[in-house]
Specification:
The strands form 6 sheets. This protein has an 8-stranded antiparallel beta sheet, with helices on both faces. Strands 3-2-1-4-5 form a 5-stranded parallel beta sheet. Strands 6-9-7-8 form a 4-stranded antiparallel beta sheet, sandwiched between helices. It has 13 helices and 23 strands. About 25% of the residues lie in helices and about 30% in strands. β7 and β8 form a beta hairpin. By secondary structure, the chain is an alpha+beta fold. It has 4 domains: about 90 residues, Rossmann fold (3-Layer(aba) Sandwich), CATH 3.40.50; about 70 residues, Dna Ligase, domain 1 (2-Layer Sandwich), CATH 3.30.1490.20; about 140 residues, D-amino Acid Aminotransferase, Chain A, domain 1 (2-Layer Sandwich); about 90 residues, Glycinamide Ribonucleotide Synthetase, Chain A, domain 4. The structure holds adenosine monophosphate and glycine. The site of glycine has 7 residues, from loops.
Length: about 450
């Protein structure tokens, strides 16, 4: 039960590449004695990482709390949004456990698009104009009388990535409303949607680690959400990223801090739901400046798999400060606002299973052996993060278990160098039906 400053045990909740990246980062900390990931995946045990996995599901809040108490876990970090919206942070806090992440009430910023708009409007954060609807007829009338053809239909609740429909014209918008509100697209009819102004521009994800009052800026990334090269094919959880976002200048960082993160935290506090944890702003750089498309209340996946390797220093003190409301005092102690970053850029390429994301009528394939060439070597600044993998039943290799299977991150002086090395490594990994994009970070320097 030694929990002295140099022997902290960490618990990370989740099982994907994002959690593998968080675990890897914290396992390098001299202040950490053990890193557990629940449920994790068997790929996290490779390469003598020292990471341990424990078969407790990410939604088993009580089981996870008991584990944290038994193991005397000093800090817990939550990966998936679903665990947050179940109220895992509220539960841990009520048992005096230190945990990074927002409460159930503050997590509404991601789960309810309408709530996010209300907070943004109060905080005067620039965002797309919108109207809210509780029945299909009013939504349809509004679409028919709109002066714009393009618009975005969003359902208010959690929708497993299917709740945002970008419509190129009114016909598509009418179809989207029917599908969501009348035809059970999401398994049940939705009774609350918003219809939003269509924004054109470059998308940037920006991340801040928050403690309820203040925050530290963690960086930016550009996600590639479509399955296929050239931004074609169905939407996925993300097929690759590069970081930092090339369009994002030092002035942009000041602007986002001042006009997005700071007022959001102030308003969330005023609403009685202070926000601590990771605030992930999905931004669109339009001709008239940045606008927020959406907020997520957790680390992005795959963004985190580049963002964290790019941070040079130990993140444990920053996570601790976020969970204990002491970011300002850490900033004063260190005499700086943000964690130190490497002077490098990063590219992350995802390899997904055949059939992923499962929306094109093909079953997502699982159970294929992952074969890695003998001459595959990871140098410093190169990482292999595992996600949808399982242990083979016949030997000690890994097999695919569906979805996004793994990803390679490479850091280098330029995006083009990082990209070259990332694809060189990807070529040395094979499994049946593997899908990956060949244009992650292309055209970036
Ligand atoms: P999701 O991350 O699943 O909520 O999907 C959101 C995606 O839909 C964003 O990454 C954008 O590409 C797109 N999107 C959302 N809102 C808008 C908007 N107002 N205008 C244009 N595209 C949007
Ligand atoms: N990469 C987008 C997400 O994590 O939602």
């Amino acid at each position: 039960m030694n929990n002295s400053i140099h022997s902290r045990k960490i618990l990370i909740i989740g099982s994907g590449g994002r959690e593998h990246a968080i675990a890897t980062k914290l396992s390098q900390s001299s202040l950490v004695s053990a890193v557990f990931v629940c449920p994790g995946n068997p790929g996290m045990l490779k390469n003598n990482s020292g990471i341990q996995i424990k078969n407790l599901a990410a939604d088993d809040s009580i089981g996870l709390l008991n584990f944290a108490i038994e193991e005397n876990i000093a800090l817990t970090i939550v990966g998936p949004e679903a665990s947050l919206s179940l109220g895992i942070v509220d539960l841990f806090v009520s048992h005096n456990r230190i945990i990074v992440g927002p409460t159930k009430a503050a997590s509404l910023l991601e789960t309810s698009k309408a709530y996010a708009k209300t907070v943004m409007n109060k905080a005067m954060v620039p965002t797309a104009g919108y109207s809210e609807f509780f029945d299909a007829e009013s939504a349809i009338n509004s679409i028919l009388s709109s002066s714009e053809e393009k618009m975005v239909v969003k359902c208010d609740g959690l929708a497993a990535g299917k709740g945002v429909i970008v419509c190129q014209n009114k016909i598509e918008a009418l179809q989207a409303v029917n599908a969501l509100m009348k035809e059970n697209l999401l398994g049940t009819n939705i009774d609350h949607i918003i219809i939003e102004e269509f924004l054109e521009g470059v998308e940037v994800s920006a991340f801040a680690l928050c403690d309820g009052e203040t925050f530290t800026f963690l960086g930016t990334a550009c996600d590639h959400k479509r399955l296929r090269d050239g931004d074609l094919g169905p939407n996925t959880g993300g097929m690759g990223v590069y970081s930092p976002a090339s369009v994002f200048s030092a002035e942009d960082e000041l602007w986002v801090n001042e006009k997005v993160f700071a007022p959001m935290l102030k308003t969330m506090k005023e609403f009685g739901t202070p926000f601590s944890g990771i605030l992930f702003a999905g931004l669109m750089k339009t001709n008239s400046g940045y606008k927020v498309l959406e907020f997520n209340v957790r680390f992005g996946d795959p963004e985190t798999q580049v963002l964290l390797p790019l941070i040079k220093e130990d993140l444990l003190p920053w996570f601790m400060a976020a969970a204990t409301g002491s970011i300002t005092s850490l900033q004063k102690k260190l005499s700086r606002q943000n964690p130190i970053k490497l002077n490098l850029k990063g590219v992350h390429v995802v390899m997904a299973a055949f059939g992923y994301p499962g929306t094109e009528g093909v079953k997502v394939r699982a159970g294929d052996e992952i074969r890695i060439d003998q001459n595959f070597r990871l140098n410093q600044n190169e990482f292999l993060f595992y996600a949808g993998v399982a242990k083979s039943l016949i030997n000690d290799s890994l097999v695919t278990s569906g979805g996004r299977v793994l990803g390679i991150t490479v850091l280098n002086e330029t995006i083009s160098k990082a990209r070259f090395d990332a694809y060189d490594l990807i070529q040395k990994i094979q499994f049946e039906g593997a899908q990956f994009r060949r244009d992650i970070g292309s055209g970036q320097s």
